[in-house]
Design a protein that fits this description.
alpha+beta, Aminopeptidase, five-stranded mixed beta sheet, three-stranded antiparallel beta sheet, 8 strands, 34% helix
Length: 218
């Protein structure tokens, strides 16, 4: 079955074309939705190197795949049922210097094989991740001491330190965060993400954030 590749000039155009397709697998496509949300809410962060958006349609004009990239970061794939559509993505991107790929296991494996065959470049698995869908909240048998509250300007320095510490522990292979203070400022201002601090006896002991908006959640 022939497939057609189409680039989109803006995140609005991309979501108008692919939104309904992506929502069919909202949990699996949470990263595509989340990045798109970040581009819409904080476009200034992506102005220096504009994001790239594209979709793949089948012979009947039905969208079967969506992909985006925010340079210099990895290419991101949507959930793809017909893995032959992955070949069309590789063929369209074969001349681009991609640093890596994020996507569902089967689609990513197909992409890596096709990419290696097409470009001669080797591929390896860098990180294996999972997606968890929240179905219900189970209260703990013994609630933690303290209370949560929205992050405030007085938390800025602490959040900046914790952002750096989390990145170095969770993804040590990632490059350093260039401006953690700016990240903390955005979180405190609730720009692109809402941050909450868990406080016990007047001391901040934990941090949780919510971001990456999807049509029916975050």
């Amino acid at each position: 079955m022939p497939f057609s590749w189409k680039r989109h000039q803006s995140v609005e155009e991309f979501l108008a074309a692919a939104g309904a397709f992506l929502e069919q697998r909202e949990a699996e496509n949470n990263l595509v939705f989340g990045i798109s949300s970040a581009i819409r809410t904080t476009p200034e962060l992506f102005a220096a190197d504009p994001p790239c958006f594209a979709t793949v349609t089948d012979a009947g004009g039905r969208i079967v795949a969506a992909t985006l990239r925010t340079p210099p970061h990895n290419q991101v794939l949507s959930w793809i049922d017909d893995l032959k559509a992955v070949d069309a993505i590789v063929d369209a991107l074969r001349e681009e210097p991609l640093p890596g790929l994020l996507g569902p296991t089967d689609a990513a494996a197909r992409f890596a094989l096709r990419w290696t065959d097409t470009t001669g470049q080797p591929a390896r698995i860098e990180v294996a991740e999972r997606i968890f869908r929240l179905q219900r909240v189970i209260p703990p048998a013994r609630p933690a001491d303290g209370n949560w509250r929205l992050a405030e300007p007085r938390d800025r320095d602490l959040i900046a330190r914790w952002v750096v510490a989390f990145s170095s522990e969770a993804v040590p292979e990632a490059p350093p965060i260039p401006d953690p203070e700016a990240v903390a400022d955005r979180w405190v201002a609730q720009v692109g993400r809402i941050a909450y601090v868990w406080e016990n006896a007047g001391e901040a002991v934990s941090l949780v954030g919510a971001g990456g908006e999807t049509p029916n959640g975050i």
